[in-house]
TrEMBL record:
It comes from the Bacteria. This is Malonyl-CoA decarboxylase. Residues 448-473 are annotated as: Disordered. The lineage of its organism: Bacteria, Pseudomonadati, Pseudomonadota, Alphaproteobacteria, Hyphomicrobiales. One of its GO terms (molecular function) is malonyl-CoA decarboxylase activity.
């Protein structure tokens, strides 16, 4: 559908909703100018649940959402708590439905009534709130607040479950539109790309231009019709001649671009989710698959699809191994040599780098192939994402990211995941069904068969004690 047609349709629907809301507001005779208290917000919720008229319902939904946005944080939390405690299932109806279900011998009709009675009232309230203009955006922000306060208000877990249940349907892949984002994209969207970038910070407009304008760069985002100028997730792509092992050359403002038709490899080097309120609603697997299809269609010369990915959990895991005397991976000398990781700028010292690399890479292989979370899956969240999508762990890149964030979260380690198009389905099934990690033989060969040790170093042809550096006081 042409963009102009989409814009006219959006403008028409927006005007229709506004007219409907204003008409309902005049019927309801309420003003949204004043902040609402917790009790007022609850009263609006009950009124919205009791009304059948659509115009009045839209007006009430608008009033409630506007009142919630203007309320104090204490009143907002009070309303969210009320969603958990006062807008659950109607217990009288649920009890009656259970009895009918047993009496009927579990008939399909009785089962349907039981299912309907078991649904929390807040699900219907959220559906009705979504009728308001801008309702979807407001509800995404509301769920973000639920996640923020979940630890201190565990009862909100039930509210969060209902948001996830509804958002999974509302943000179904069928409603999402893939759009290329380039230097000609409207400025308000480009500003959000700068703000939302989560992996490699975009420092200014020149930095953004270097990621969007050259012929060998691409950026794609998923958009939802109810959040028209908000990318839900976006991926940045570099078109290259080979598989990169470090991020700095890809982001270098002074690099020499190549012709897109000369490229053989598409590198997904940054994937950013933009809406905290949509956490847990997966778009990334669909995004990568569709971007692969887009690039293949535009550039048949591109045959290899890889990532250059961060390893956000590696430094934390390694710290645990280093401080655990019972570690099966490190002996005393290796543990002492890794003390260099606690010193500033260790990566600038070639001697330290030479000592650390043969210890760090086998540890990285163990981290990806052996370290598991309670569900038996890899500890690293980025690994779970790509492996779950059918990628293969292709290579470990020592000091691939020497930025402050890269050194802090992974001691500079980056990895490549390969999306081998003929293997994706099998890799996905093996990972989902058996927790099996698809990994290249070069990675598997790095796995240590015994505790790692720091080899004695050579100095002027003489063997000396292993290099050790005490951590700073």
């Amino acid at each position: 559908m042409p963009q102009a047609t989409v814009d006219r349709a959006s403008e028409f629907l927006g005007g229709l909703f506004t007219s409907l809301t204003e008409r309902g507001r005049s019927l309801f005779k309420s003003s949204n100018d004043q902040p609402k208290t917790r009790d007022e917000l609850i009263a609006f919720g009950e009124a919205l649940m009791s009304r059948r008229g659509e115009a009045t319902g839209v007006a009430l939904a608008s009033e409630l959402l506007s009142g919630y946005d203007g309320a104090t944080e204490q009143d907002q939390i009070g309303f969210l708590d009320a969603l958990a405690e006062q807008f659950g299932p109607d217990l009288a109806q649920l009890t009656a439905a259970v009895e009918t279900f047993h009496i009927s011998g579990a008939s399909p009709d009785a089962a349907g009534q039981l299912l309907k009675a078991a649904e929390p009232r807040r699900q219907e309230l959220i559906r009705r709130l979504n009728l308001a203009p801008g309702g979807t955006t407001s509800l995404v922000r509301m769920r973000e607040a639920v996640l923020t306060h979940l630890r201190d208000h565990p009862q909100l877990k039930h509210v969060d479950d209902d948001f996830v249940h509804l958002f999974t349907s509302w943000f179904n892949r069928g409603f999402l539109v893939l759009q290329r984002i380039d230097w000609n994209t409207p400025a308000n969207i480009l500003e959000k790309i700068i703000r939302y970038e989560q992996v490699h910070a975009i420092h200014n407009w020149d930095d953004l231009r270097a990621r969007l304008a050259p012929a060998d760069r691409r950026c794609y985002g998923f958009f939802h019709p109810q959040l028209v100028d908000e990318p839900l997730i976006f991926v940045e792509v570099a078109l290259t001649l080979d598989r990169p092992g470090a991020i700095a050359p890809l982001l270098d403002l002074d690099r020499e671009p190549i012709a897109a038709k000369a490229a053989t490899t598409a590198v997904f080097y940054s994937i950013s989710n933009t809406q905290k309120g949509l956490a847990g609603i997966s778009f990334g697997n669909f995004l990568i698959k569709q971007v692969v299809e887009e690039i293949k269609r535009e550039l048949p010369n591109v045959q290899n699809f890889v990532t250059l990915s961060p390893v956000p959990g590696f430094a934390k895991w390694l710290h645990s191994e280093r401080t655990t005397e019972e570690s099966a991976l490190l002996d005393v000398s290796a543990r002492a040599a890794l003390g260099a990781l606690d010193t500033p700028d260790w990566s600038d010292d070639p001697e330290i780098v030479d000592r650390i690399k043969p210890i760090l890479l086998p540890l990285a292989a163990a981290y990806f192939l052996q370290a598991k979370n309670p569900r038996g899956l890899p500890l690293d969240p980025v690994a779970r994402f790509h492996l779950g999508n059918g990628a293969r762990l292709e290579s470990l890149n020592f000091l691939g990211d020497r930025s402050p964030n890269g050194m802090r979260q992974s001691h500079g380690l980056m990895v490549n995941y390969l999306y081998a198009l003929g293997e994706i389905e099998n890799n996905h099934e093996a990972f989902v069904e058996r927790g099996q990690v698809a990994a290249a033989s070069a990675v598997r060969r790095q796995l240590p068969s015994k505790p790692l040790t720091a080899e004695p170093r050579k100095s002027n042809g003489k063997t000396t004690a292993p290099l050790t550096i005490a951590p700073p006081a």
